[in-house]
Amino acid sequence: MELSNLAVPSVYVLIFFLAYTSQWLLKDLEPAPPTEGEYIRFNILLICLLISYTRSVFVDPGHIPTMHEHEKGPANDVSDNFPSQSRPDNTNGHRKWCRKCNLPKPPRAHHCRTCGRCIPKMDHHCPWTANCVSHTTFPHFLRFLFYAVASLAYLASLLWPPIAHLWHNRNMPSYLGPSMLQLVHLFALCVGDFVMLFALGILLVRNIWSLAVNTTTIEGWEIERHATLVRRARYFGGWLEGPGGVQVRIEKQEFPYDVGIWTNCKEGMGTGNVSAISLSIIQSSEKGYMPLPYPVAHCCHMVSRPSLPRRPSLTFR
Ligand SMILES: [Zn+2]
Ligand SMILES: [Zn+2]
């Protein structure tokens, strides 16, 4: 059994430890157990967390439709997707081709070695969900981060009163306080809560930023690489040496998918419905894809996407 197969069960065990053993411990600690309202609010957050995490793990990250699927698809889709001329030697030099899948690689798609196929709008392959964060799984992944951070912050607020009480009574005889086992349990919960809150908080902010600017992790690296090339080229009159000693003109290109925060958020979350964005239980999946304002095959081919605005004169490859 590979170690990576243990990642998802480990996350469920960690959620169980932090979320449920804490509730069992807190009911016996002074100054007072959490109130009924606090238990209810905490458990609602935990239900949302478990649903969004489970969806991040099990929702299909999508695939690039094969020629066969396109031939079977609706007639009005065919012209926008894979025309029969889009073979590698007839690609007029613009389309990328995945040699491993032997299929065209649409803009924003990348080949994931772990999933073994090209993934639409791939962000990264997350080892903790054992799934790609992609066009279809990003909303679940973001909600998972949000509910994880909210649950951890709420747990911190529940852990604080007993810790403050212990500190206040630190000079009292130890037999009047909690047992050694309870103290170790409380300490482990505090460390786990703090570490996870810090790590997932950073990840949440980073992913909200990604959503707002409509830039995946891989595209972020590409933008950085491009900026470095442009900086270097400035010293050589806008030219750099390419493969085989060929001089290549380097021009600054603007990233074309950032079309305004609200439109970016709608596209990234697959809906403009605010309640559907925040509640993972509402947003459903249909044949592995979530409902989107445009067909997923169009999204794979941003050049032909009909319903969202785009700056037509800009290219980013
Ligand atoms: Zn591929
Ligand atoms: Zn993957």
From TrEMBL:
Residues 93-222 form the Palmitoyltransferase DHHC domain. Residues 78-91 have a biased composition (Polar residues). It catalyses: L-cysteinyl-[protein] + hexadecanoyl-CoA = S-hexadecanoyl-L-cysteinyl-[protein] + CoA. Keywords: Acyltransferase, Lipoprotein, Membrane, Palmitate, Transferase, Transmembrane, Transmembrane helix. It is found in: Membrane. It is an enzyme of class 2 (transferase). One of its GO terms (molecular function) is protein-cysteine S-palmitoyltransferase activity. The DHHC domain is required for palmitoyltransferase activity. This is Palmitoyltransferase. It comes from Westerdykella ornata.
